[in-house]
Design brief:
49% of the residues lie in helices and 16% in strands. It has 191 residues and is α/β, with parallel strands linked by helices. The chain is elongated, with a radius of gyration of 19 Å. The two termini are 34 Å apart.
């Protein structure tokens, strides 16, 4: 058995380069070394960096070829990667649709909160101290920042600040906070 623990170094979007936090940059490598280095069962390909998707697919191919039980080709890996990206994008799109539907259904009744933070802090019960459950027990509608839909126009007021940030998650959190602050009866909660 193997553990897939990819390395995310930085993201390049439009005219901006943003680094992922140290946990997502170095933890996979340190874990792999602690588990035996090159002989480890921890698989740590670099998935997010300045390289093209071709480079990412080649990394996955080189990593998987020697450990699979059957012969695999680069085209199979490439197609699987594209399929996975499409599935991820569709899941994100569905989350945004669900969020809009929930807001429409709620109308002007009640309050809602959008949890902001690094995904491993917000989504893991071991890291979020039960904060989402507290809001749910109070019958407050809860959402996560990835459910928001917005454009560059929604971020005009904080654009100068965003240009100065080199951290991916910090920029995502500030963008979400700005968008939520413009919405009625919806409040950002940082975890």
């Amino acid at each position: 058995d193997y553990v897939f623990l990819p390395v995310y170094l930085e993201n390049k979007a439009k005219d901006t380069r943003r680094h992922y936090c140290y946990y997502t940059q170095y933890l996979p490598s340190l874990t792999s070394l602690a588990a035996g280095g090159k002989n480890s069962t921890i698989l740590t390909p670099v998935l997010r960096y300045l390289y093209t998707t071709f480079h990412t697919k080649m990394q996955l191919y080189r990593m998987l070829k020697p450990i699979t039980r059957r012969s695999i080709g680069f085209l199979e890996i490439s197609q699987a990667y594209d399929h996975a990206l499409n599935a991820e994008n569709e899941a994100k799109r569905q989350l945004k649709i669900h969020f809009r539907k929930q807001l429409e259904k709620r109308g002007t009744d009640g309050l809602g909160v959008v949890f902001l933070g690094r995904p491993y802090n917000v989504l893991a019960k071991s890291m979020n101290c039960g904060i989402p459950e507290i809001f749910n027990s109070l019958e407050v509608d809860t959402y996560y920042q990835d459910m928001l839909s917005y454009s560059d126009e929604d971020l005009v007021r904080i654009k100068p600040l965003l240009k100065e940030l080199h951290w991916q998650y910090a920029a995502n959190i500030l963008e979400a906070a700005e968008v939520v602050a413009q919405m009625e009866r919806l409040y950002p909660v940082y975890i």
